[in-house]
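Input chain follows. Return structure tokens only.
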Amino acid sequence: MIYAVCWLAQDLLTVLTDGIMQIPELFLLSIVYGLLTDKMRDGIGAIWGAFFGGLLWDLRWVGMPGFFALANVCVVTGVIMFWNALPSSGRTAFVVFFVFWMSQLIPSAMYFALFVRAVNGARLFEMQQICAVSLACLLAFCFARSKNGANE
């Protein structure tokens, strides 16, 4: 349910800020946060959720079905592989911040490289990444707080 709310919030914010800035991938961030905090234990479910959310996004905005679906699936698969290969002692707040930021940078960079030819495209990309870094910091802080609360 929270993933659908994040997808709708991302869609609404995209409509409200069209032409002003690009919105960070809130839907993808919610899936990655669920994977990292073990709220979403099923990796296959996360991959399918990312695929269908990306496909809906493609049909709604991009017009090229499969673009964001592929990007979302690649990011979620990469996060699962990276997180499972990382020892528990290496799961620090900085690493979590890096995972969140990379989950935002990869789809945005793919979209920017393939579709954005406007003069102000770089400015839109920069503004999106500033917001993405802010969200990644906030979620890394929330992750660290939840892990510290679990350890006490």
